[in-house]
Amino acid sequence: MYWSIVFILSFAYRFLRLIVNRIAVSKFRPIPIPKSPSLNSKDVTVVIPTLDGDGNELRRTLRSVLASGPQEIMLVTVEANTEKARIMLKELGMSIVRVLSVPHPNKRIQMAKAIPEIRTEITIFADDDVSWPTTLLPWMLSPFEDSTYGGVGTNQRVIRAAKPTFSQNLWAYLNCLYLERRNFDCAACSHMDGGVPCLSGRTVAYRTSILRDDAFIAGLKHEVWLGRYQLSVDDDNFITRWLVSHGHKIAFQWHEEAEVLTTLEDNSMFLKQCLRWSRSNWRSNITSMFVERIIWSEQPWSTYAVHLTTLSHWALIWDCWMVYCCISAFETDWRNQMQSEWIVLSSLLVWMLLSKVIKFPRHYARYPSDLCLVPVSILFGWLHGLIKLNALLTVTMTTWGSREGADSMDGYRMMRVTVDERKSVETLMIESSPMPLNSIAVDRSWKSADQDLGARISSSTALPLLAYQCRDTPNLHLTNTSKIYESEKPPAYV
Questions:
Q1: At what angle are helices 462-469 and 214-222 packed, to 10 degrees?
Q2: Suppose 187 and one of 28, 29, 481, 489 were both cysteines; which one would form an S-S bond, judging by CB atoms 3.0 to 4.6 Å apart?
Q3: What digits encode the pLDDT tens for the residues 146-168?
Q4: 3-state helix/strand/coil string of 15-84
């Protein structure tokens, strides 16, 4: 009975989440727009971090955002492209758009630059390559009628080329499945336990009061990952974890009137995007599961269905393992039923094939001709394991690789933090922090004697907050936190 049990347990672990998620998605409903909402578009400021300061995609983004009627739009670019951005806005006649700048390209720092300038109750961050429907804002604002909600995400879809080449069509197909899979997982987890794997930064809304918290801004600008690295990427993952760890609910609005269109690479550069996303998943999910750990109790289904898959989901290995277990069970446990072997094995293979497409009925209804490309998606799913392994082995790399100019200052996105810095930070936090311990995050690996701290511990903001709080403290050497952004004046925390 050994192989029978192994097969059943493996099948259950591999496919239970798919079956339950499929049911959850069918029952999912977005939070409806109230008849008399207390929030409207004039309660919204839209912040668009950008690198180039101009371009066709950015212009399309600005037009679509402006059509939604927000109170203000902030375009945050690098100093070298500030004039270019102003010229573009003058050509477009967009006086409502304000231009801000930072010395070097870094999305976290660009976001932090805009936050103190925001005067509306709701802030929406948007990438510079998205297109909004005019119906978007009411759907994104409706969850905020409940004061317990801190963040809202929405469904996304890829803009495909009008007359693509065969190669472009293949890559665009994989692009589409990536976002459809994300929509599926977010909707399912939101329905099951209120979790969302990540509030994608392509378009996401937050309560401004959360963003303006000093500890949040410090963590956003100088997150410490695993107590070893100062991290300046993965902004959307960081903010999602912050909301969860601070007790704010998250909503996912999956509706055709809230669908955000975006562009992805329709060439081999898509592989570099996948590598970057996979590295981000490794970093964030490791932090969520093994450092902060709150998701195990707050979002148990999301932890199993999404976060754990970073460690356990390797498509080719799992598919081969399931076939091997099935054959082994017939050879050892089910010898008297060998005549049924091919029926069971064939049924397993059909089910495995079905599992590759069951998440995407909306996509295939929209693009029925893509059904002939299903073998391509299966092959890519198998080969994605190599990308995932590469990402694990290079998890400390933060290069984009797919956008010109984005990596010009890559060196400061992840910097090593010394042992003495970590120890100094924790000691000072415990002894002299003016903030409640449950509002500050500390790396668990350095919590030694005091096991009764009532704090919710993580590695998200320990070093940056104390680096600024204690920057004038004698014998404290926090060198890495100050040399990166020399041109910026740190906020006053004391």
A1: 110
A2: 28
A3: 999 999 999 999 999 888 999 99
A4: HHHHHHHHHHHHHCCCCCCCCCCCCCHHHEEEEEECCCCCCHHHHHHHHHHHHCCCCEEEEEEEHHHHHH
